[in-house]
Amino acid sequence: MVVLTREKLKKEIDEGKLRPVYVLHGEETYLRDNAAKVISQSAFSAADFRDFNDDQFSLNTPENISVALAAANQLPMMASRRVVRISEVRVSTSSMKDTLKEDAEDVLAQYLSNPNPSSIVVFVVDELNGSRKLGKLLKSHPGAVEFSPPDETEIKKLSNNVFEKAQVSIERLALRRLVELVGCDARRITIESNKLATASLPARTVNIDLVESLIRNTRERSNFDFANHLLAGRNSDAVKALEKVLSDGEEPLALLGALSWKFRDELKRRDATTRTAYSDRLAKALVRIADTDLAIKTSVGGSGKASRKQIEMLVCELATM
What we know:
Helix content is 55%, strand content 12%. By secondary structure, it is of the alpha/beta class. The chain is globular, with a radius of gyration of 23 Å.
């Protein structure tokens, strides 16, 4: 079977060759979600009544799989195609975490083997265990596309696309520094590139000084705001700040570094000769931060999504100390 790559998917969409079924999966959720949007947009012409034919279903309600496939079997209304997007699809290592349940196998297999030619069904998959039967069924489909984390070349291309669209130029050294600061995160590079494009007006040129002043300062300030909220007992604000910096693409280890520095600095300010409940709390927090740091670095706590879960669990624990 010929594997459908991201590059081939883009080429087919650009040529107007849309498949009846897509299975979009992988770690890179930003590019995955963007691909689902582009497929949907490309399916309709200006004359089509898109509102009547663009359906979205979440499998957080597992029964929706039957409803979604029933919708896909309907003829489009005042349009050439119908699009059905099925999100929050999870086939995990444990069936307890599945949103696509085993009892849906027959109806799913039946549709995949004979899809409605006037519909486009897009499965937006959060987790796909290829060793499970349902996972194999989706992953082996000809319309399956894996969205792996992009490499540095792809990240630079994404950034350049943003600047070209904004009619802004970026110096070569500035682009290199931007990638160093942001890393190979598609969502983060897009957000930061748009930010730089706006900040470059009216000159419309991004140099290394602008990158250094805007990107680095923004990330450091966000990290320490998150740590300050936690220290001050503003737990709700700390959780919100954590979600924001993680969504912006910050690495969990960088956040652990900010946490450790702030808690250690606060402990140093305490009177070393006087033991208090607050200083004990700070000391215990530092131990837990160090444990989490070690767990992530040695892969005991996992990497990627697992490392994010580790720091989220740590914050919940520190908030209740």
